[in-house]
Amino acid sequence: MGAVGTNINYNYPFFMNMNDQLAIRWEKTRQGDVSEFGAIHHELYPVLYHYVLKITRDEIVSQDLVQELFIKMWERRERLGPIYNVRVYFFKAARSLALNYFKSQKNHLPIAEDQREIDLAFSQEEIWVNGENDVEFNRLLTLALNALPKRQKEMVHLKYFDGWTYEQIAEVTGINYQSVVNHVHRAMQQLRTNLVDDKRVQSCRIAV
To answer: Does position 19 have pLDDT exceeding 50, yes or no?
Structure first.
């Protein structure tokens, strides 16, 4: 099932923080500690569900996919070995499960033909929660974000709404670092163009 069983090189400095609490919890999970795995579930389930929901746009499917991920991680805990950045690993696995789900569907496919570009959808409610309290600007910003190319939308969401670094986005999506930077830069340029006449853009949380 995609990234859950994928061998990933975790020897880069980016992954070497073994003092990370989730990494410690994972090591205890590998030893069969159910309570530590429950703590990982408690911390990551909400954000993973939110991310997968942005992909599938289906609450039930998203719940099932994320729960499937945790079941697989528990069942494969001994074979997977140490995971030095648990959060990134789980996000990458969740993304892979969502892509595989759509590959198995014959009808609605909100991803590109190459099965790697995910078509996330921004909502006014989400942007409102993230700090914009002007209804009209909220609407315009939502429209501008959703007008971005698919890959740029995913990059922007991970960078500005989920708080990922460029390095983490590269790991989750499988896109090289410079390409991630370029996608985000182009997205910001496009947003500036679309919102150039709106002074409120200066206070926008995504700093367009």
So the answer is: no
C-alpha triplet 15, 172, 181: angle, nearest 5°: 95
Q: Report domain extents, the chain.
A: 2-103, 124-203
Yes or no: domain 124-203 corresponds to CATH 3.40.50.450: no
DSSP for 168-207, written as a single string: HHHHHHT--HHHHHHHHHHHHHHHHHHTTT-GGGGG-TT-
Q: For residues 110 and 37, what is the distance between their CA atoms, to the nearest angstrom?
A: 32
Token digits of residue 45: 């389930």
Instruction: Quote the CA–CA distance of 161 and 206 in Å, as a whole number.
Output: 8
Count Cα atoms within 13 angstroms, Cβ side, for 170. Answer: 12
Fold of domain 2-103: Rna Polymerase Sigma Factor; Chain: A (1.10.1740)
pTM, entire model:
0.74
